């Protein structure tokens, strides 16, 4: 099975441990496109110039699920930024399950939309994710 990881660019370094844990369970794991351009600032120009959003959407398209590593950021518990929100919307539209590390942030201006995407909070319980995906 294929899983695309999503998160704020600040947490890309933390994604390697998640990737390793999932690969050990037989998953093929796709990392965010920005990972290859970590030396750049996360600006609209960089995203346009290197097709970062579109490239990550292609990974979502090929996936059986996405996992959003929504760590706490700048005082927001379970932060979900704009790119992760877009990726969640893409997965939802394609009928691809959305798994979250942490609960949806209460401070999010698009909390209701995030709830409507029906993500499943699993923490880092990869056995639960595996079980839920096998039920599909």
Brief overview, please?
This protein has 136 residues and is of the alpha/beta class. The protein has helices at 12-23, 44-49, 52-61, 82-94, 111-116, 126-134, and strands at residues 2-6, 28-30, 65-68, 98-100, 120-121. It has one domain (2-134): Rossmann fold, CATH 3.40.50.450.
If you had to describe this structure to a student in words, what would you say it looks like?
With 136 residues, the protein is of the alpha/beta class. The chain has one domain: Rossmann fold (3-Layer(aba) Sandwich). It contains 6 helices and 5 strands. Helix 4 links the parallel strand 3 and strand 4. The radius of gyration is 14 Å and the shape is globular. 31% of the residues are buried.
Main-sheet strand order equals 2-1-3-4-5
- The fraction of residues in strands falls at 5-15%
Question: What is the level-2 CATH architecture name?
Answer: 3-Layer(aba) Sandwich
Strand count: 5
Radius of gyration: 14 Å
The average pLDDT is: 91
The major beta sheet can be summarized as:
5 strands, parallel
What is the helical fraction, as a range of percent?
A: 40-55%
For this structure, the CATH topology is Rossmann fold
Shape: globular
SS-derived structural category: alpha/beta
* Unreliable residue runs: none
N- and C-termini, Cα separation? 12 Å
The first-level CATH class is given as Alpha Beta
Count of individual domains = 1
Order of helices and strands: EHEHHEHEHEH
Helix segment tally: 6
